[in-house]
Design goal:
The chain has 121 residues and is mainly beta. 8% of the residues lie in helices and 44% in strands. The strands form 3 sheets. The protein has a 6-stranded antiparallel sheet. A 3-stranded antiparallel sheet has the order 7-6-9, with no helix packed on it. Strand 6 and strand 7 form a beta hairpin. 25% of the residues are buried.
Length: 121
């Protein structure tokens, strides 16, 4: 078999809990030896936002599965509903505010096995 299976049980062990929600990593160089992709499941709690940040080495694709977000990208923002997909270019600051009545759940993907994260004040 050429593929690498990363089970749900293993992914749940890699979940990173934050005050604002959680990140569960599903694929990356570290987890699945994927040199060219990182994939994660992000949950932002109702009324919370993740920190403003940039990814200096890659773009980010954000696909909202559940909830409603006001996503700030540079000096602008967009409203996201379930099924919407946002692409954030490399090096552009962004963060999401959950404006819905439930936790927001999204899949995030980066064209790098090791995506860089830098908080922006």
């Amino acid at each position: 078999m050429q593929g690498i299976l990363f089970t749900r049980a293993k992914a749940e062990q890699k979940r990173v809990e934050q005050e604002w929600g959680s990140l569960t990593w599903l694929a990356s160089k570290e987890l699945t030896k994927s040199d060219d992709i990182t994939v994660g499941l992000v949950v932002i709690k109702k009324g919370q936002s993740n920190p403003r940040h940039i990814h200096g080495n890659c773009s980010e694709v954000i696909h909202l599965q559940k909830g409603r977000l006001k996503h700030f990208v540079d000096k602008d923002f967009v409203f996201m509903e379930p099924g919407d997909t946002l692409v954030v270019p490399t090096g552009v600051d962004h963060y999401a505010l959950n404006i819905g009545d439930e936790d927001a759940v999204m899949i995030v993907a980066y064209p790098s096995g090791q995506r860089h994260f830098q908080a922006v004040p």
